[in-house]
Amino acid sequence: MHEAVKLYLKDDDEAAIGIGTLIVFIALVLVAAIAAAVIIKTAYSLKDQAESTGQGAINEVAGSFKVISLVGERTTGPPLSANINTLWVYLTVWDGSRGIDMSKARIICRSTTNLKELSLDTTGATATAYDADEVPTGTAGNGWDPANGMYFLDADNILKIEIAISLVQGGTGIAPNTGMTLQLVPGSGPVVTEFFVTPPSYAGDKYIDLTNA
Q1: pTM of the model
Q2: Is the pLDDT of residue 105 over 80?
Q3: Are residues 129 and 88 in the same domain?
Q4: Quick one: 108 and 146 in the same domain?
Q5: Which residue, 22, 46, 62, sits at the end of a domain?
Q6: Cα–Cα–Cα angle for 82, 133, 213, nearest 5°?
Q7: Which of 49, 63, 210, 211 is the most buried (most CB within 10 A)?
């Protein structure tokens, strides 16, 4: 009589470890692929935002006024008037600007006692209008030609704006140590705000520099 043969099966631990490693490897590949997709998508999103921000910055600068100088003038007597009667604003545009149609531009003058909106009138400054002429006057080859109905401020010219501030202020002008805000509003594009405070005394000066004052 033969003895029964007993079979012993050995666990294949190496195969189990190999399968586990393969699963982990596949998981790592999937995670890496997902991470790469997220990074690429984020990079494109940041690129679009950067381009949008850059274009916005260009528009902010190139689409509006550049104030060169702001000067107050006292009327010649003798003696000189006690207050500033006229404001002169020298304007140009930033490089790359498409130009500004001054016939659509407005200047808002605001003090603690007065608020006026001025539009262009090339026949003279009034209580409701500002005057403008290019510097030097009569320069050819740009967009400023009032005789032919062209009132463009572009990169090739500088405009000298006259504001009859004594009329705008109701006859008082701007006294020493007085604050005022000018807002230059183009037909389209960002508004440029200039705030200044006049000196404590004008002394004997006819012209008072108010640029960045």
Answers
A1: 0.69
A2: yes
A3: yes
A4: yes
A5: 62
A6: 45
A7: 210
